[in-house]
Amino acid sequence: SKVRDFRDVKNEANRLGEVYHFGRVHELCFLKNSELAEGNVLRKYKGRVVFLGDQVKDQNDNVAFFQELSSSPATIAASRMGDMYGLFAGHTTQLSDATSAYTQAKLEGTKTWVSLPRERWPEAWKKRTWVSYPVCPLEYALYGHPDSGGYWEKHCDAHLTKVGWTKASGIWPSTYWHEKLQLFLVVYVDDFKMAGPTKNLEEGWKLVRSGLVMDDPTPLATYLGCKHIVK
Prior knowledge:
Blueprint: E1 4-5, H1 6-16, E2 21-32, E3 44-51, E4 57-58, H2 76-86, E5 91-97, E6 112-115, H3 123-126, E7 134-137, H4 148-162, E8 166-167, E9 175-178, E10 183-188, E11 191-197, H5 198-209, E12 218-219, E13 222-223, E14 226-227
Parallel strand pairs: 2-6
Antiparallel strand pairs: 1-7, 2-3, 2-4, 5-11, 5-12, 6-7, 8-9, 9-10, 10-11, 13-14
């Protein structure tokens, strides 16, 4: 609904003396967990639309520079600590994925405009006469944008701290502790691992899901490529 002609947006940037970024989105299809045996429910084809972050230019056709916001996902050591805590008497460990995580966060910084593959143009676009080609504002942190990970992490952290989670460690990034519920949470980009008293896990996930779109929690299984077997 906010589509504009590229040339108009380009002229606007120069008139205002601002820098706009221009790129395009691209469709991908790949076999996820291809290393697993055929028939495994985790082995499936997945489609994704990404931002081609290596082909971005400004309105003057110069190569774009980004803020290079660094994200700090949890470490394997932190994940192992979650495993250990979940093995305490009366404790359990569960997993959940954030659904299309990056696109839950707003893209801030330099205004970014993208072109869509022609086969994805709405019919109304095809009926218009474009001076150059149509572009749309990129409003959410799409996969492929160099700063998307940083904005998602900022969005995730802001929500978790708002609902009572605190940073669990100064040396382990993206780990959280909930004092009242005695729960330990490990966040690796969009993969969440929660460990603690079994009776409190439901309430812990409820807090997380009150502001983030998440899959339903599942028992501890595969996390960060490692298969966990609890005996």
